[in-house]
Structure formats: C-alpha cells, structure tokens
Amino acid sequence: MNRKDLLTVVDEFDSPVYVYDAAIIEAQYKRLNKAFKKVKQLKINYAVKALSNISVLKLLSAMGSGMDTVSIQEVRLAMEAGVSPDKIIYTPNGVSMEEIEKAAGLGVQINIDNLSILEQFGTKHPKVPVCIRINPHVMAGGNTNISVGHIDSKFGISIHQMPHLKRIVENTKMNINGIHMHTGSDILDIDVFLYASEILFEAAKNFHNLEFIDFGSGFKVPYKEGDIETNIEELGEKLSTRFNSFCKEYGKELTLAFEPGKFLVSESGKFLVKVNVVKQTTSTVFAQVDSGFNHLIRPMLYGSQHEIENISQPKGRERFYSVVGYICETDTFANNRRIAEISEGDILSFSNAGAYCFSMASNYNSRYRPAEVLWYKNKAHLIRKRENFEDIARNQISIEL
C-alpha cells in the first residue's frame, strides 16, 4: 500500500479506519517458515487475539496457518473462518472448567496452565489429549503487562511444581500430547529465549507420548526506523539445530510449534485518522484527531510508540506536534513528535496498527468502533462495517420509569 492507496481508502470508507496489507502478512508468514526450514515438522498457530477479524483468519488459514485461541469465542471465530478444529489450540487462563469442556467438545487441542483444572479435567476426560503450559520463570517482554514468564506471573504451571504435575498425570492416566511455554512479548535477547527453551526440553523428558513442543512467541517487530527487532533468522538457525537434536534424544520426530500474533500482523496495519483541530496553547501545538484511546489504547496502556505520518502533506516542513484524541480525558498518541506540517482536515497514518489495536477497541464515550479494510491484490475490501447508533443501543433495555 502506498500513500495514494491509503487516501483512497479514506475517501471510500471515511475515517477513522484500520487498513491491513495482506501482502505484508503473507511475507511475514513466509519469513517465519523459512527461518525454521531445517525443522521437519513446523506448525505455526496464529494468535487470534492480536487481530481477530474473520477475513484475516481466512487469509492466514489459506497460507497454512493454524490458530492459537484464548477464549471459546476465538475458537468459534476460527471455526467460522473455516479452520478445522484439529488446527486450533486453545490456551485460556483462569477460565471455568465448563468453558474448557466446551472447547474440548468442539475437538480443538486443549492447553491447560494450572494444576487444579488439570486434575479436574484429567479425572473426567483422561482420554482427551492435553497440552501443558509451563512457566519457565524466565523473564521476557518489553513491558510488565506483556511479560508472562516470570515467577510472579499468573500464567502457566511453575517448573518447580513438576513433581505435583507428574503425580496428577500418573494418577489420572491422562494423555499429555504437548508441552508449551510463553515467556512474553517483545523478545530482545535470543539467548534468554534459548535458555527458556532448555528448561522446556528438560520438562518434556517427563512425558513419553508428546506430539509437539510449543515455544509460544513474542517476537519483537520494529516500531520505527532502526528499531531493534527479534533476529528471527538467527533464532531459527539455533533453535532448529537444538530441536532436531532433542528429537533424536527423545526417540521421536516431534512438531515444533509457535503462536505468533504481532509478528505476523503488526506491520501490515495502518490506522488512518482525520485532523479535526490544530490547537496552539502557550507551550504546545496539538493536532486533535477524530479518534482516541477508545480506538487505539496501546500508547496510553503500554507506552507504545506508533510512527505517525501526515499522508495528506508528506513533504511539508516538519514541526513538533502532540497528537491527541477526542475522548473526554487525557488521550495522547504522541508528545512533541516531528511530523510534516499539519492542517485541519489532513489525514494522519499510524504505523504498526495491525496487532492489538482494533481488538482492544471499545465504545468509551459511546463512540462507534471504526471500520476495518483489507488491502488484498491491490484492492480495498471492507471486512468490518463502521458501527452506528443502532449498534450502540442494540443490547440495551429501556425500563419504564
């Protein structure tokens, strides 16, 4: 997608609007496959929570991707997209036994991350294959909200609880067919990830009927020019060699699984907004846009940086702007950012808007959630309509007073 394509999308579908470039998603999927080409059996399960639009799920499924889900609703979305249950893994956290049984009933791969549910499920359903999520107590992630492998994390069964875990498996005679970890998002140090992998390999030796080992994901993508990112090619080379060696030790060819979300879709996304007001105060120039953290909360929640470009006047003289939204409290997208000179009515484009952006959108201030568009084969395809007032009011019940 080029600048003119993006402006065409706004002309056709108005703003604010999310646009995803299918070619970038496909390129990232191929890049990950190529990095692990030395592994005989590789399985990539796209993390649905990153961007759950059914058309995107269809696109990834057509490339050969499975789906990583964290809720029964995501399982159903994946199936609605035509993904067969045997290509879906379900990895919830803190959900009820009833929801896990519903997912199992649909025929998807179950991944359990606590001893209580493991014992309950194994007692009732010993023949259903189960993957176990291990917490290796290895810290990864660029923000505490997305670092999930540390010792105080709510995710996974502690590696130090292996004796308890083995006791449950032996007593229930349940079928453990996979073992899994996820250290957190924004992996910066490959050696730390490889160290966590060794812990997972050691844990895997306790189970004799494994079919796969799932290393999670969390690969960091660049958010600006020159930004650090996970060296996926180096990781592929090193982990593939170690994985193949482990398979020989184990005596069986296992599947190496990953569940990337951000890596596949983040860079594909642009979020397009219109400038309503350029406001000069005593110390700041604000560009106030027709959106807010109800549509893009990551800068406020994580402190994430999204590159912002004025695609209406890209060659204008650069000035410093604070880009803010229309929500009735502080919602700052960028502070004192150098952007080509902005006029009211200009269209701004936020980069890296493919992952955890629309999926975290809300109706705060009773605002409508924006439309979504897939740029596929040089054409814009509407894949979600912009909400309207009827959508806001639909499930509300007005009582007689």
UniProtKB/TrEMBL annotation:
Protein name: Diaminopimelate decarboxylase
Phylogenetic lineage: Bacteria, Pseudomonadati, Bacteroidota, Flavobacteriia, Flavobacteriales
PANTHER family: DIAMINOPIMELATE DECARBOXYLASE (PTHR43727), GROUP IV DECARBOXYLASE (PTHR43727:SF2)
One GO BP: lysine biosynthetic process via diaminopimelate
Cofactor dependency: pyridoxal 5'-phosphate
Entry-annotated residues carrying N6-(pyridoxal phosphate)lysine: K49
Annotated catalytic residues: C328 (proton donor)
Function according to Swiss-Prot or TrEMBL: Specifically catalyzes the decarboxylation of meso-diaminopimelate (meso-DAP) to L-lysine.
SUPFAM superfamilies linked to this entry: Alanine racemase C-terminal domain-like (SSF50621), PLP-binding barrel (SSF51419)
MF terms (GO), sorted A to Z: diaminopimelate decarboxylase activity; pyridoxal phosphate binding
Domain called Orn/DAP/Arg decarboxylase 2 C-terminal: residue spans: 18-354
The keyword Transmembrane helix is annotated on this UniProt entry: no
Gene this chain is encoded by: lysA
Protein's pathway: Amino-acid biosynthesis; L-lysine biosynthesis via DAP pathway; L-lysine from DL-2,6-diaminopimelate: step 1/1
PROSITE patterns: ODR_DC_2_1 (PS00878)
Annotated family: Belongs to the Orn/Lys/Arg decarboxylase class-II family. LysA subfamily.
EC number: 4.1.1.20
